[in-house]
User: Fold this.
Amino acid sequence: GEEPPPFPPPAIPANSRRTGGATHLSMAVKGTSKLGRALKKPTGALTIGFEATSSVSSLGATDLDALSLTLRKAKAAAIFADPACIAPISREQAKAKGNFPGPCPVVSLGVASEEDLGKAGGDGAQGVVVSVSELGCEAAAGLAQAAEKKGMDAVWEVASKEEAGEAVEAGAKVVLVSAAIGDAAGIREAIPKSVVAVVSVKSMQQGAQEVDQAQSLKASGYNSVVLADACVGDKEDEPYAKWAVDALLSKQSKEFKITGMTGHVNGHYGTGTFEKSQAEVVWERMA
Assistant:
């Protein structure tokens, strides 16, 4: 007999409507939101997003553009931004259209009404966070549907297994959980594999605990980590973003923690590696 065609069929675009072998592919892609695809890698590798707080909006245009560019070059999967800084970040990201890396999706935090939704869309957000805890599932679902009609993806923020179950039942494609809740790993069990699971982890923790936390939550099945309060409009935003991506994605981060010092002294890793020893990283902002 003939060899079955490889999957996915290479010559057929993902959104193909042709029948036959490509049908399933088309359905699979349809079931995932565009934002979901940015946050969940087919390889299973962790993706990293950054939160930009309202104080980022007080930066001058040049500094804000520089930060937005740094996040893109650091291969941030998404920027979860306070409504105050959606417009300038979206404008800068749009400049990368057609380039590599392309624009980072910008997701608006703090969306609680149709009015917020309209503003987020007008400012260029590709996604919005709707909180099941704050709004209740029904109101969150209403906003999520309204967002999708405007071409934006909804990220459902949940704080318990029950809320996660409700969100999934209501059609959530991307679910966000805060690690501050304490049972993030347990909540992950209530989210099916087909739904993108994102966990928010506090940035700049003592002893770089966010690295261990992120790796342990990835092991629980989370696809993406968002570093909360990572960008606050100070001089450490950019260095932290670069460091965090490197530390969270480096397969050697565990080794660096133990052998960063020895490696540096013995010259095994070349110069500059000592800075990568996470236990040694201290940010002024933490002081």
